[in-house]
Amino acid sequence: MRDTAVALTAAGIDNVRFEARLLLSHATGLTIEQLISRGPDPAPAPAAARLRELTARRVRREPMAYILGEREFWGLPFKVSPAVLIPRPDSETVIETVLDLIPDRTRKLRILDLGLGSGCLLLTLLREYPQATGVGIDASVAALAVAQANAEALGVASRARLSAGDWRQAGWVGRLVDQPEAPFDLLVSNPPYIESAAVEGLMPEVATHEPRLALDGGADGLAAYRIIAEASPRLVVPGGWAIVEGGEGQAPEIASLFAAAGFSPRPARKDLGGIERVVPARH
């Protein structure tokens, strides 16, 4: 573990002892508590070799979540791979907003998630609303495979229909509106919102390893929101909600896009860092 911490420090990574413990735990198959109790024991050669492999990946700034293959979101374990954006605590603000605005957990909601990724938004909501059904759309077949595995592991696969499709392309709304679940009571999305020119300047874990399709929001970062807002009147029932995550400083412009589409935006919801992170709008 000391050797790993030294290597991580040299790579400019923070919290090295914490990360070294995680890597060692993953390499050995032991819990952190078991590692502490067995600290003086000689390290088995296969585990040491495995740890060196994992450390080399982290030194190359591969995100820890991809190395471990899992990330917690809303207290639930989500499988992740380089095909999907890593779930972040900021996105839990979407879940909090939905639960606040739709407090009846027994409602048979029809939920649409655009840009499904790992499925963290849709699948968490299906857990919170046991009578709800959902449709998740993602352009990446590899991402859909991750989301499907998560749906099955979380016990909501029977209520989730996950489909491949690039909702940013012309004609996608018509195909979606024709689906039996449409229109929906709730639309959620964490679309790409980083300005194209800024993507390469993000920290290496993000810029180099996370899928650009899930990051690049166009020249001003708002390209996806224009598409979603314009389509929302056909996708969301009157009285239903569109609730989307955005980047720092984007909430007023996102709200304006939904207002222009005939929705009534509500005050943006702040994440734990005090950033206006989520824009809810009612049809």
Description:
With 283 residues, the protein is α/β, with parallel strands linked by helices. It has 12 helices and 10 strands. The chain has helices spanning 2-10, 16-28, 32-37, 45-59, 64-68, 92-101, 120-128, 141-153, 172-177, 204-207, 223-235, 251-260, and strands at 70-73, 76-79, 110-114, 133-138, 160-164, 184-189, 236-245, 264-265, 269-270, 276-282. Strands 3, 4, 5, 6, 7, 8, 9 and 10 form an 8-stranded mixed beta sheet that branches. A two-stranded antiparallel sheet has the order 1-2. Helix 2 (16-28) packs across helix 4 (45-59) and helix 11 runs parallel beside helix 12. It is elongated and about 65 Å long.
Overview features:
283 residues, alpha/beta, eight-stranded mixed β-sheet, two-stranded antiparallel ribbon, 12 helices, 10 strands, 40% helix, elongated
Topology (SSEs and partners):
Elements: H1 2-10, H2 16-28, H3 32-37, H4 45-59, H5 64-68, E1 70-73, E2 76-79, H6 92-101, E3 110-114, H7 120-128, E4 133-138, H8 141-153, E5 160-164, H9 172-177, E6 184-189, H10 204-207, H11 223-235, E7 236-245, H12 251-260, E8 264-265, E9 269-270, E10 276-282
Parallel strand pairs: 3-4, 3-6, 4-5, 6-7
Antiparallel strand pairs: 1-2, 7-10, 8-10, 9-10
